[in-house]
């Protein structure tokens, strides 16, 4: 018997090895990821099952009590501990309550750049039981007024750095009964009081718990706006439970308490505020915040602050890879990069140049009811069709017609699921565990994101608006946004694929591809806005030869616009609206324009005569 017992561990180890050898590829990765994500999800739900519920604010307060001297925020030469931020937010809450007359359930708009003020303002409002509307600092005029109206905010906390934007809409806001305050020592704008003196004079005593007595898992914690690449920004509702879940994403990816997270992303979006800063509040880590991204200072900052985790969006990583090589490129302590939108070629170049950093690419939308995480490090993938996770959060890739901008349905009126190797629209089932809260003040926009009768009559799915592809191993790859795919010559053209191809042209630094309307032609014709590398000149012969060899004829842009800088949003997404509207009219566009001339096998300057011939349908495209 003793001999048999002695052999048991070896036998179990052998069975485990055999099971591993016989298991499908990545099964164990899927299982480990499922257990990790399920554990954090259950932890979030258990926190809200308590009486009273334990919110992210309560988690922060627990860290502040247990480790008051732990650094929470590093900004330039300033250091703020958990205790510092707790006391500062107490003062701010008391001053805001007294000056603004805030009551639980009110919504206050925050119009601030990246700074420590953003953090203690957020926590101050949470301590008062108020929701925060995170207004994009690039919002101006009508978009700014719309953002405040959508969230129902009657109070705005702003920075004098945004004085021009504030003063532009101030008369309209005052007529609407919206009050604006600067979180600064003094005010440069008549009619806008400065609150910092009141905050500094206020007591730092903890706020009474009664302010948050009515908070539940479904209470509105904040509003985060879509980037506004198309139309006016929409205010996505973030509940207290969703706030906690998103703040757990970094922990699901491996964030530890001893990590130092570096973010240059804007705090008015969920990646910087909830994943980065919120992830630190959740686990008790340290966040290094920078006001704006700087490619030249990025790695110097990482070394200066002993950064171990960086946040990114795809364009940010490309900017880093485009900087001149340095001998100290690999001299840093970064172990993990957390973000989304990185193309495969940039991913490979980043690892080659900056060393073996663990890349944790994720996919999700602020308003979405679920997301994906690439937990295996598969280059280019945004996640996996994890069989365990899919059981609890069902999603599908369904057939989509980009020409009609609608899902394709069968004779029963149901959508058509796609298999490996096919590009389809990602939809996620709306359930009790994966709810969709929509947008504040816009029931129509909310309903437009709900797709009904997808797999069965009466079901409802969240429409991501994104086209993804799944390979035979179950990895998912982002292909395009629905609005960014256009049809030309009877073919679908994915702008991101064309952009990735053109990025390899020697004299092109940046490229933005979009479709423009052409008289007498069905669909939209391809056009590319490009920024040239420093000191480079546009070479039409080279570009023509390159596109002829690398792109199908229908995908090669017929028009090229050379710009000094490409317009991007605060989260580095390329803006296309203005480009599409201006088209290729030489009378309207002041930038150099080029036309793909097949007879000359070159991209040649687009003259008024050529434009007129296209408009009159005398020149065939």
From TrEMBL:
Q: Where is the AMP-dependent synthetase/ligase domain?
A: 63-385
Instruction: Name its GO BP terms in alphabetical order.
Output: bile acid metabolic process; long-chain fatty acid import into cell
What chemistry does it catalyse, as a reaction equation? Answer: a very long-chain fatty acid + ATP + CoA = a very long-chain fatty acyl-CoA + AMP + diphosphate; tetracosanoate + ATP + CoA = tetracosanoyl-CoA + AMP + diphosphate; a long-chain fatty acid + ATP + CoA = a long-chain fatty acyl-CoA + AMP + diphosphate
Question: Which principal EC class is assigned to this enzyme?
Answer: ligase
**Which keywords does UniProt give here?**
Cell membrane, Fatty acid metabolism, Ligase, Lipid metabolism, Lipid transport, Membrane, Nucleotide-binding, Transmembrane, Transmembrane helix, Transport
Q: Where is the AMP-binding enzyme C-terminal domain?
A: 497-573
Q: Which domain of life is it from?
A: Eukaryota
The EC number(s) attached to this protein equal 6.2.1.3
GO cellular component terms?
endoplasmic reticulum membrane; plasma membrane
InterPro entries, per the entry: AMP-bd_C, AMP-bd_C_sf, AMP-binding_CS, AMP-dep_synth/lig_dom, ANL_N_sf
**Membrane topology, record value:** Multi-pass membrane protein
Q: Which SUPFAM superfamilies match?
A: Acetyl-CoA synthetase-like
Question: What would be one Pfam family of this protein?
Answer: AMP-binding
Give GO MF terms, alphabetically: long-chain fatty acid transmembrane transporter activity; long-chain fatty acid-CoA ligase activity; nucleotide binding
What are the subcellular locations of this protein? Cell membrane
Kindly give the NCBIfam families that the UniProt entry links to this protein: PRK08279.1
User: What family is this protein classified in?
Assistant: Belongs to the ATP-dependent AMP-binding enzyme family.
Protein name as it appears in the record: long-chain-fatty-acid--CoA ligase
Where does this protein come from, organism-wise?
Pipra filicauda
Q: Which gene encodes it?
A: LOC113992616
